[in-house]
Amino acid sequence: MAERPAESSSLEGARYACFMLTSAGLIVAALYLGQRIFVPLALAILLTLLLTPVVSRLERGRLGRFPAVLSVVCLAFALIGLVGWAVATQFANLIDDLPQHKANVREKIIQLRGSGKPGLLGTAQDIVEEVENAREPTADAPGASASPPSPVIHVELQKPSLFSQLQAVAGRVLGNITLLVAVILLVITLLLYREDTRNRLIRLAGRGRLTVTTRALDEAARRIGGYLLGHSAVNAGFGVAIGLGLAALEVPYPALWGLLAGVFRFIPSIGVWLVVPLPVALTLISNPGFVVPLLVLGLFLTLDLLTANLIEPWVCGRSVGLAPVPLLLAVMFWTGLWGVVGLVLATPMTVCLAVLGKYIPQLSFLSVLLSKEAALRPAARYYQRLLARDRREAEVVVKEYLVEHSMDELFDRVLLPALVLIRRSRKAGELRPEDEEFILHATREIVDGLGGSTTSTDHPVSEERLVVLGVPATDGADEVALHMLRHLVRTDGVDIEVTSGGFAAPNTSALVQGAVLVAALGPGGLTEARYLCRRLRAQHPEVKIVVGRWGCGRDPKKARRLLLGAGAYRVSGTLREARTELVRVGRPLSPLHLPAQRTV
After folding, report:
1. Structural domain count, the chain
2. What is the pTM of this model?
């Protein structure tokens, strides 16, 4: 027995999902197990993208490539070593002063207990002490001498030899030195042969994908390089400002906190606030009162707000193009995979994945998940919110779109596509009749609410009113589309009288003179629109029939030929086109007998 198409499609989808999950698991396992290879390579590529603009500028200044590369690399790694030495020195000082801070913590706890006064902390500590005293009987307690003392067994632990200790330390030191040397050599090599490396990547992708590969590489380099240069400068300035401010407040180890603040600021949104508790807690236990801790907290808050809202937009311009929540999850993933190095590489690696998803169709889900672009288009957001019976947010979508677009664009690009989604969902059997009725009714009311703000600069306002008969080809969606056009053409001196839809309109008792607009919203409706055109043409040979074939994008030429062959005078693909045609061909309709208007 042959498989049904639906079952075959679902089986194929399950196989594809299984293949993707297996591939993702293998890639993650390879990245984790091969981090000794991938980490130096990723660091080298990151530093190459950061240093390439500087090297290129020195080369344009008539300095040879090798001297330019060597000088920039030496300066960069000297700066990195200086920063690392400063952090290590400050951290060593903090370790040496820990006993003093331990005493300060005890004194602060005594102060918080209110100098021995009973409180929640004191009560809890008293209970713990009573329990410990009950478990350990004293020498003069009854029954204390009844139990014989337990024997004490001395176990001598053999200490590791000096050679084994030196071997472990030497292994770690040599491993770190090897990693550093590998990164330096890779950076120098990539900077010297960067064009050759780029051409080999393009050749590897295939000649048939030359354009796509070039655009992907250029966009990845531009976004990562701009992010690294701009945010490195901003975060460095932020760290220096924090260090100077903490030094002015006499907070211990200001250089350490400033460096940590600058580094952790690469983590979006919450990076700085991972560092704030450390200096605040240190000032809380080393200073009387709460003035200095509050000043430290205010310093971080003020500088972070100024940097995020003023300095960063001015220096960096456009952001890296990643959504905040996926970027934060990516930071957690790469940090868990590669540790501190993963924290530094998280954003550049995520940018590369987003660029791959943008240019490779099979990985388009990465662009959807990671990109900062809106996940849903305005039309889909509007339809989805009304489907969830959230009219308030649907109105917010409309108002936000009107801030930067005209009323014509709102109707053609948001509301009409939403009506098209109604047709498609109904055809697929996914939309209930009551939901469809609610969406149409809400859209009709939203359009009526926008009537007062309809303005036009394309057509002059006419004092002579022209009346056009509007006939929906099928259902309520066509009627709502006619009401949208009705609001648009009011300022053009045109009135549209909307009659009831279906094959019963217009009836034989209607006397039509002038122009008639048949609304046939896609998908579907073509057969009904042709029937209405033939019927109108047979009853009123002189009438000018304009068919609004809306919501279908570029309708096939065959459909236009069929409508024109059925008696249509013009066929418009958008409300803007229909508006122009009505102004051109409309004439007063008198006398006019219309059936009772149906409300949506």
Report:
1. 4
2. 0.62
